[in-house]
Design a protein that fits this description.
Largest sheet: 5 strands, mixed
Number of helices: 12
Number of strands: 17
Strand content: 25-35%
Shape: elongated
Mean pLDDT: 87
Radius of gyration: 54 Å
Low-confidence stretches: 474-482
Strand order of the largest sheet: 3-2-1-4-8
Oligomer: single chain
Helix content: 25-40%
Order of helices and strands: EEEHEEHEEHEEEEHEHEHHHHHEEHEHE
Amino acid sequence: MKRSLLLFLSANRLHAQLMEGGEIVLQHDFTETPDGLENFVTFLQMEICPTYLLTDLIEEDFRHEIVPHLLGGKRTALLQRKFDQFYRGTPFHQAVQLQRQKTGRRDDDMLFSALTNPSLITPWLNILLAQQTPLVGIYSVPQISAPLVKDHPSKHLLLISWEKFSGLRQTYFSGHRLQISRLTPIHADLTFHDAVIKELSRTYQYLKSLSLLPSGQILDVRILCHAKDRSELHNKLSDTDVRYDFSDIEEVGRQLKIDYQFTDSDASQIFLHQLTINRPDTNYANAEHIRYYTLWQLRRALNWGSAVLLLASISWATAVFWQNRGNAVDAESLEFKAQNMQREVQQITQSFPSTHAPAADMKAGVSIMRKLDQYEPAPQIILKPISATLDRFPQIELSDLGWQSSATEPAASGTRADVPAQVIILKGDLQGFGNDYRAALAYLDRFQLDLSKRGYLVTILTRPLDVSPSGSLADQREARENELAFSFKLVWRPAT
């Protein structure tokens, strides 16, 4: 179960309590004496867990400033200049942006604060660092008070609480944003309700003098107290310019699920538990103060990462194991089927008749079959290129096609001469040329060239117009008007 150590530092005393699952396991108080500091060292050696340091000191200063809205390194440099200007003598300082203005340059409203007497914190902090305690941060009571007033509708509210070892704390909020806080020690001869009555009037005048409370504005006051102090306060407090709201400390404890019996108005446990459940984003500790908590977080993240990696490895190994087991079962099944199939093949093979033949005879038979395939090629091999060429020349109308084998035809270059040639006689007419013989002859020449490119040896038998020296142009025109007939001989052999 998650454990944490809560430390409450007042002017001369440090209260420590060990928490586990929201319950108090151990409590101890230490004084700033040699024995008290030594006892604190022994106490820290008992348990190493995240530690929260809550302070409630008079020496806490608040300053409200309006600064330009900057980002990155420029903002960091600006804030550092302000810290050097206001709080040069202490490392325990912080800046909180309250809001950004909505007009003009839209500057930032900032609240600068610091613990101005570092000597009250340093002895305890040195021990924490020496023991390598994972310190989460250094906080103050005003800093964690805002959640206790967030449900109050007033824009000008004063929260009053009492911490037994510190005194009476008065924290002023404007628009639910912290503005200023005062701590007044209560002496033994002064009761809680008398201290409230005495200090409230001073705080009211102080707020008026700083113009934090607008003129004519009623101040709302929420008092965190025990039921037995409420009736006494109600009878003694004046209602002039002040409106009171009493918050029962036992009821607040129940809302925060605090396992503690409240016997008086001491609100120390309220603020300690408030710190663990509503920890502010900023605090007075710097990187050096919280380095062991950073290392603790890193170590924890590595442990979680290792656990997740181990779990993933186990899951992967389990999945692989079961997959391999399934593969082994499938392999056995396939091997069994293969053996059965092999036995069936052997049985079928043994039933075949004896057909033993010499290898040379089988080779000769295969060669003869291949040669026969070349002697009688499939018609598709020979005719398909011719068909493709005719598709490209639509003005040629085929009228007759003859096909025969011939061993006497000469072999063209790149073809086999040891097989018969396939001879195709094409006869056809040229359509659409009329008496334009020049165009018709050119068209027919292109047709012849295309066939030659497809592997045929083309010989022209007749042309539409006999241009040979022995031909008669006049006679052909009279005899075959409007008819352009031709015939080709194509010779085809397989390529080498």
